[in-house]
Amino acid sequence: MRRLRLAFVIAATLNPALPATKPAPAKKAAAKKPPPPKKPTRAAISAAARAKAQEDINAMIAADTIGVENASALAPFFAAITTPAGPVHILQFGDSHTASDDLVNSIRSVLQTKYGDGGPGFILPGRPFKGYRRFDARATATPRWKTEGVLQNRGNAWQGLGGISISTVVANQSISVDASGERLGLNFMRQEKGGRVEINADGQLTEMIPTQGDAGAGTWEAQLTGGEHLIGLRTLDKAPVRLFGWTLENSVGVTVETLGINGAWNNIMLAWDNEVWSAQFAARHAALVILEYGTNEANSRVWEANQYRRDLAAVVARIRQATPETAILMIGPPDCGQKKPLLHLDDVIGAQRQFARENNIAYFDWRSHMGGPRSVLNWVTAGFGQRDYIHLTGDGYRLTAQMLLTALEQAANVSH
Fold first, then answer.
1. What's the pLDDT score for residue 131?
2. For the whole prediction, is pTM greater than 0.85?
3. Of the residues 9, 89, 170, 234, which has the maximum number of CB atoms within 10 A of its CB?
4. Three-class DSSP labels, the chain
5. Cβ contact 169:175 at 8 Å
6. 235, pLDDT greater than 80
7. Mean pLDDT of all residues in the chain?
8. Sign of the CA dihedral 398, 402, 405, 407?
């Protein structure tokens, strides 16, 4: 309710028997401060300019022949997706371009339409950070969960498959996920004094899971009927519980799983406990891993080429030690920067391309597919790039997915 301040004026009647009082001097009017200057607004983009930019970009995409470099490295993936023996899992690790799920969901939608819907696969638990979303799952969480693994709170090394965990020591804290699939799993941390959790599926399946045990990766699985399910989890004790994520999938079809962290470099993976991470990663039996990093490295003043190559080698070694048969695709950073390219953009792309060539890794040069250096200006004009000249809009990420999938299809046809 809006409060109104009431001003009361008291009128005094002069008593002629009293001596006259000297009138109070008049107060000087306070000088008015000038209004603060208005922030400059970004120039509006005319409809004609936007239409012309969109026309140019669509024509460029139609004529795109760049393809995927080192496409032969994807042969195991092409074999898996065309002659599947079960679900085909694609895991995309990356920065904010991945974390928003725009790009990944666009890839997911096309592949699941063509090869079958394998469900969401791995999903981070609860609502681990502001803006977290999956287009193929809806989630809730009570307030007393603590998130670790994001750049604002890196926490310890026990962060699991997605590099992020949520934890609590409070009873009756809950999370839920609403998504489709017939095989349900929970990834959690076993710890010495771990508490119990209760899982409920559609109000029917109810099971109590202890998380106490020797430190390491814990899993729980259950079979459900096909279709959409509402899954809930509740802590039962005043004891520590740490969760890494859900898995929900079908026995056939494709999953494209979003494993992005805002602001991340590729070496963030090296901070995760390798025993815990490798156990959960190997359980996914990934046919393809996509590494989408480089934007934050390119924007850093402390980036150094030799260290970057060493980090790339260490990340790839972890993946191949856990699952040697997994194909790897590296996606370079998009064209970025308003007045000039990001500081190390050329260097990062060059280092990635060389590393991919030398290590049997496929490479998708995102910047070249956009049109090359300074193409981001045209993408922003077209409404395909955001006004920070780094991130794309939903339409821009959909166009990127279209270019990537076209390049992959061309590579698959050549390999056959």
1. 84
2. yes
3. 89
4. CCCCCCCCCCCCCCCCCCCCCCCCCCCCCCCCCCCCCCCCCCCCCCHHHHHHHHHHHHHHHHCCCCCCECHHHHHHHHHHHHCCCCCEEEEEEECHHHHCCHHHHHHHHHHHHHHCECCCEEECCCCCCCCCCECCEEEEECCCCEEECECCECCCCCCCCCCCEEEECCCCCEEEEEEECCEEEEEEEEECCCCEEEEEECCCEEEEEECECCCEEEEEEEECCCCEEEEEEEECCCCCEEEEEEEEECCCCEEEEEEECCCCCHHHHHHCCHHHHHHHHHHHCEEEEEEECCHHHHCCCCCCHHHHHHHHHHHHHHHHHHCCCCEEEEECCCCCCCCCCCCCHHHHHHHHHHHHHHCCCEEECHHHHHCCCCHHHHHHHCCCECCCCCCECHHHHHHHHHHHHHHHHHHHHHHC
5. no
6. yes
7. 91
8. negative
- Distance between CA atoms of residues 208 and 332, nearest Å: 44
- Say yes or no to pLDDT of 310 above 60: yes
Q: Are 240 and 194 in contact (CB under 8 A)?
A: yes
Which two three-digit tokens encode residue 413? Answer: 């046809």
pLDDT at position 2 over 50? no
The pair of three-digit structure tokens given for residue 352, joined into one six-digit string: 């990635």
